[in-house]
Amino acid sequence: MPDASTLVTQTDPRALVRELEGKHLIDGALVPAASGKTFDVVNPATLQVIGQTADGDAEDVARAVEAAAAAQKAWAETPARERGKLIAECGRLLEQHKEELARLVALETGKALRTESRVEAGVLADAFVFYGGLASELKGESIPFNPKMLTVTSREPIGVVGAIIPWNVPMMLMAFKIAPALVAGNAVVVKSAEEAPYAVLRVCQIMNQVLPKGLFNLLSGFGPDCGQPLVAHPKVGKVTFTGSVEAGKAVYRTAAEKLIPVTLELGGKSPMIVMADADLDKAVAGAAAGMRFTRQGQSCTASSRIYVHRSLRDAFVEKLKAKVDDLVMGDPLDEATDIGTIVSQQQFERVKSYIAQGKAEGGTAHLCSQVPADEALSRGYYVQPVIFTDLPADSRLITEEIFGPVACVVAFDDYEEVIAAANDSVYGLAATVWTRDLKTALNATKRLEAGFVQVNQNLVVLPNLSYGGVKQSGLGKEASLEAMLEHFTHKKTIIFNME
After folding, report:
1. Is the pTM of this model over 0.85?
2. Which of 59, 322, 371, 448 has a CB 3.0–4.6 Å from the CB of 431, allowing a cystine?
3. Which tens digit of pLDDT belongs to each residue from 280-305?
4. CA dihedral 259, 430, 173, 332 (to 10 degrees)
């Protein structure tokens, strides 16, 4: 096993970029792209280029997959509890590097350090410790098929897992993919998001101090040139993807040609229902947290459709605006900052276009907080959070995932009406209901068409909370024991004739 003390913590994110730029991590080593090509990574708070990253293609994918396939054979023969101990040790090591990882992801994504990036780095470390402790659960069953036969099942690893991750919480979502895959005896090749390659590459570098070389490989690049060859590679036996619906469908089509299993997490348009008897202050706090305003609304589970009983609507909007007004927008690396930036120009323009459309449709836009006055940040991708009211029911702002700080508040009068409205979506990832009435809560949790439903709270996804959606929000579950067992192993049936 490599020496786990070779990397020194480095809290200057720009120094880390200089160490990591222009590199993949393949077979335990930082290496340039086979083509030698790179592309720029931009700090969304200042629009300054912070560095270049390797521009991967099919040749890089082939090198990484071959390294993973070679390493996986011995890893699969390692006792499950020993694998779990090494993955848990990765978690403890990542905890030691938490501050540097938080600063690095803040620099490249624009997420505020105090409110978002440190939280993500903590969940990252916890996910590896959590899954490390589940290694003993990789067990089969004894089946009473016939008294004259011993019939059992066993869990076996798939082989090489290809993981494609997004930019909004890249470290956390990577952990929920690769930690269970590794504990189950697989090797992994990850393709990072173009906007956020450095923090996850540093995670890979840290973990490669502990893991056998070749077991965890990380590539950067664009979807068509790097992601698609990873999904299509004949030695990749499982794909796990988080991203847009259209990209997920493309991944699914390619994987279907090979008839391999796929896990897809494809976003949402999550409803929040505030009943007339709800605790108003708790619901407002839940909306502010659930909309992920401190992440600029860049969350798959963001409560962007807020249905409030008409008797509470005006007071709810007033209190929510006041709460978001108190949040400070600024430099993501400043400890005083609550809200950072949108991640890229493309996403910035997309969000602004939705806001313009909402205003054109006659919606009332309640602008919150203030963009930073600092001249150095004046060109950054800052968008004031917006609470829309009075939108038409068929507005795209209510039906489409914006992935920005735009919340739509809709008044309702009737319970059946609001359940129907909440379910009138192609998405089904998350939902919340706020009420003091147990009967209403139980009925709503049963009828809401979503994979992750909460009552009187709006937690983010955490280890041991089964997470995944229905409808076009995707396929499969993450962050739980079942994710490891059902998505990263094959079940084999074995029969002994005892006669």
Report:
1. yes
2. 448
3. 999 999 999 999 999 999 999 999 99
4. 150
